[in-house]
Design a protein that fits this description.
The structure is a single chain. This protein is of the alpha/beta class. 42% of the residues lie in helices and 19% in strands. The protein has one domain: 3-Layer(aba) Sandwich (Rossmann fold), CATH 3.40.50. Strands 3-2-1-4-5-6-10 form a 7-stranded parallel beta sheet, sandwiched between helices. The protein has a 3-stranded mixed beta sheet with strand order 7-9-11. Helix 6 (150-169) links the parallel strand 5 and strand 6. The longest helix is centred in the first third of the chain and has 21 residues, at 96-116. The chain binds nicotinamide-adenine-dinucleotide. The site of nicotinamide-adenine-dinucleotide has 29 residues, from helix 1, strand 2, helix 5, strand 5 and strand 7.
């Protein structure tokens, strides 16, 4: 597939990496973002990168729930990568209606407009949160979803919207269930999934960190470059109907292990404070990513050590600037 790709949420953490990868691969890229958590700074250099690869880059400021903005945004696109969402479990507990409106409602709008514009491929950024506390680990896509938060409910509903459109309208949809993504440009202010970014920001600033619960809860951390590779493959590979795919490393790491690893790369101890476990947080998480390997030929390639080094280099640089 070639041509123009729409990335909603392209000014965010994962989206800004995806935009660069697509431009480097020679695609034209359009971003629709309302800058609620994303920034223009994240997209610095995108126009120059497009020019260097003979492509075009366009930025539309707007809300994914706006029919008018979305109609403009999908016009002429070969594929949509829909990443815009309220990407926080904590925020979804504070404002469940707002979260549902953006994360599910925004997807309904994006899918509807994409179908109208005859876009043939729709890729949704979904989440491992849909599984809740899975009965069995590693968790496969056949496992029954048990969402524990409005965020997870909204992601599951967004997947169903994609599936319905794929079934009815012959647009291929891929719902990628990201596990805990980390890497440069992740906002340390984000409470969810951002444990590595929070620990690194604290290490860079010489401040203490908060560990929720006993710190023995495990997560499947996947480097942002690997996630982007899965997204690009979901755009490029021949697909029909709907594909729901786990995007994780398949390796569980406890929060306290992460802290130890961050101390190693940062070169010193980090003071820790313990606080009560957060509502909506799952205990353990680990992907069975076999289906993504089968369907996309994808598996996580970045080692945790190397991913942490790259992430730390970015936080250290930010502190020096
Ligand atoms: N980071 C993770 O570990 C993780 C894990 C699972 C799933 N995800 C999903 O991946 C996607 C990207 O997450 P991220 O970590 O890059 O988060 P992010 O907050 O950095 O990116 C989200 C982007 O969407 C934009 N946005 C939010 N509401 C919008 C709206 N109404 N209209 C237009 N734009 C809007 C934000 O400004 C931001 O640029 C999200 O859908 C998130 O739920 C992320």
């Amino acid at each position: 597939m070639d041509g123009l790709i729409l990335v909603t949420g392209g000014a965010g953490f994962i989206g800004s990496h995806l935009v660069r990868a697509l431009l480097t691969a020679g695609y034209d890229v359009r971003v629709l973002d309302d800058f609620s958590t994303g920034t223009q700074e994240n997209l610095r250099g995108a126009e120059a990168l497009a020019a260097a690869h003979g492509g075009h880059f366009q930025l539309i400021a707007g809300d994914v729930r706006s029919e008018f903005k979305m109609r403009d945004a999908v016009d002429g696109c070969a594929a949509v990568c829909h990443l815009a969402a309220v990407a926080s479990v904590t925020q979804s507990l504070v404002d469940p209606v707002g979260t549902g409106s953006v994360t599910h409602g925004g997807t309904v709008n994006a899918v509807r407009m994409a179908v109208e514009a005859e876009v043939s491929r729709f890729v949704l950024a979904s989440s491992c949160a849909v599984y809740g506390d899975a009965a069995q680990l590693p968790v496969a896509e056949t496992s029954t979803p048990r969402p524990l938060s409005p965020y997870a409910e909204a992601k599951l509903a967004a997947e169903e919207t994609c599936a319905a459109a794929a079934d009815a309208r012959q647009m291929a949809a891929a719902c990628l269930r990201f596990f805990n993504v980390y890497g440069p440009r992740q906002d340390p202010g984000s409470e969810y999934s951002g444990v590595i970014s929070r620990f690194m920001a604290a290490a860079a600033a010489g401040e203490p960190v908060t560990v929720y619960g006993d710190g023995q809860q495990t997560r499947d951390f996947v480097y942002v470059g690997d996630v982007v590779e899965a997204l690009v493959r979901a755009v490029q590979r021949p697909l029909t109907g709907v594909s729901v795919l786990n995007v994780g490393s398949g390796t569980p790491t406890s929060v306290l292990d992460v802290l130890g690893r961050v101390e190693e790369v940062a070169g010193g101890p980090i003071e820790r404070r313990f606080a009560a476990a957060r509502t909506g947080d799952i205990r353990d998480s680990m992907a069975d990513a076999g289906r993504a390997k089968w369907v996309l030929g994808w598996e996580a390639a970045e080692t945790f050590a190397s991913g942490l080094e790259k992430t730390w280099a970015w936080y250290r640089e930010g502190t020096r600037a």
